[in-house]
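note to self: dont lose this again. the chain is below, predicted strucutre after it. 275 aa total, dont forget to put it in the shared folder this time
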Amino acid sequence: MLRVVVFAMALLGGGIAAAGEETLDLGGVRTTVWSDADATGALPVLVFSHGFHGCATQSRFLMTAFASAGYLVLAPNHRDATCNGGRAGWLDRPAQPFDRPDAWTDAVYRDRADDIRTVVDALGRDARLRDRADLHRLGLVGHSLGGYTVLGLSGAWPSWRLDGVKAVLALSPYSTPFIVHRTLAHLAAPVMFQGGSWDFGITPFVIAPDGAFEQAPSPKYYVEFEYAGHFAWTDVRDIDHDAIVSYSVAFMNHYLKAQPADALLRPDQRIVAAP
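---
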């Protein structure tokens, strides 16, 4: 599975940049930023963490949708990025084997957590962006290993916890280290897990009895998209994108903009969304 992940994610370096997209250096971290230039006032902030051997621009469809919905979106290129200027090798091995979650500790991929912490800290000081950013309304979004990253920052690794996170969106997240170590009970923000019926390497661990969804505290949400594989949350696979956007934006609007809960949001239930 990991070889497939590496090969497919390597295709993500191209594509047409969406309006309102720019790449900046924030605290020494290469970061892609999306926003609506016509938006006024300070915007809620979302930070996106990409998948293993993906990159900041791997999920433009979702980042541009968030920007259009009134969010300031930032996505750092992590050290393991292979596109968007990333220097990792496509065949580089992970820091720990994915099939040995018991061997993972809070030291594994701490650099990813440090990237996000650095970007958030730098945002508050950056003259180009600070007046547009409302860091009192901060949400985290992550795909695959990025899901591991944002769950860790939301409390699943208590030593990583980033203060001020109001909501976390975990897209096909690699969550098995937290399941094995039983640390998801430490999550300090509402979480929405998303999975796919064809996401065979990740989703079963999220939704299994005593899996990530069951171990997480409420309020929590789980949405499963029919026919969605692991790359449904990237630009590689254009499947279920409209539904992914609808559920993701509704979740963040509720917790970061204090909007009434959309009918799509049903906490503590397993929702299966047809394409």
